[in-house]
TrEMBL record:
Gene Ontology CC entries for this record: cytoplasm
Organism: Thiocapsa imhoffii
Any GO molecular function: 2 iron, 2 sulfur cluster binding
Keywords, sorted A to Z: 2Fe-2S, Iron, Iron-sulfur, Metal-binding
Gene3D superfamilies: CDGSH iron-sulfur domain, mitoNEET-type
Protein name as annotated: Iron-binding zinc finger CDGSH type domain-containing protein
Pfam families xref list: Fer4_19 (PF06902), zf-CDGSH (PF09360)
Residue intervals of the Iron-binding zinc finger CDGSH type domain: 102-139, 178-214
């Protein structure tokens, strides 16, 4: 199966859409209990093999936004109550929330609420992760040293701005969890490293200028 495929799986009560441009094969779908996703079966996704509630819950596990659904009862996916950035060990930045990501195509509905963003600098699909961190040998366990200014509210729109050849700027109520899962940082604006070279990951320290990062 080509990673560039976009596939639709129709069901009686709910449809599932797969966007291979975003998939990084985490496996939350394939490892889910039940018969909604079965590797080697044709089709490998059968929305009628699970209840509508199960389809919604399993699809929403997808951390990259590659999977979305269309509930025929008209119930849409909604933003989580809190905007969270999870710094994956040796991997991407997993964002969940009410996301407004610069550079996201209109036909990428999944990244409205869930996205895996590159932090190694090597992705060929910036700002999204494409697993290039593996070949690049990117190493960062996801420790977070700063605590941030704190929050008086959670949720609301989180704008993700990509500075040319520079950091990712997240504006809005935000909580950052370290690779260990610890709630580490809270604030309303964060400048995060996109080049992979910062000595203060996940935050930018200006190293993108020294290494000539482009992206």
């Amino acid at each position: 199966m080509s990673d560039k495929q976009q596939l639709d799986f129709a069901g009686r009560e709910i449809d599932v859409h797969f966007d291979g441009r975003l998939c990084i094969h985490i496996g939350e779908c394939g490892y889910a209990k039940g018969d909604l996703f079965v590797g080697g079966r044709e089709p490998w996704c059968d929305p009628d093999a699970a209840t509508t509630a199960e389809v919604r819950e399993i699809v929403e596990r997808c951390p990259s936004g590659a999977l979305t659904y269309q509930d025929k009862s008209g119930v849409p996916e909604t933003a989580p109550a809190e905007n969270v950035a999870m710094v994956a060990s040796n991997g991407p930045l997993y964002l969940t929330g009410d996301l407004d990501i610069q550079g996201a195509a209109e036909d990428m509905p999944g990244v409205r609420f869930r996205a895996a963003l590159c932090r190694c600098g090597a992705s060929q699909n910036k700002p999204f992760c494409d697993n290039s961190h593996v070949e690049a040998g990117f190493v960062d366990a996801g420790a977070v040293g700063d605590r941030g200014a704190g929050l008086t509210a959670t949720g609301g729109s989180l704008k993700v701005e990509l500075r040319p050849d520079g950091p990712m700027v997240l504006s809005g109520n935000l909580s950052i969890r370290a690779g260990s899962g610890r709630l580490a940082w809270q604030g309303e604006k964060a400048f995060l490293c996109r080049c992979g070279a910062s000595n203060n990951k996940p935050f930018c320290d200006g190293m993108h200028k020294k290494i000539g990062f482009k992206g």
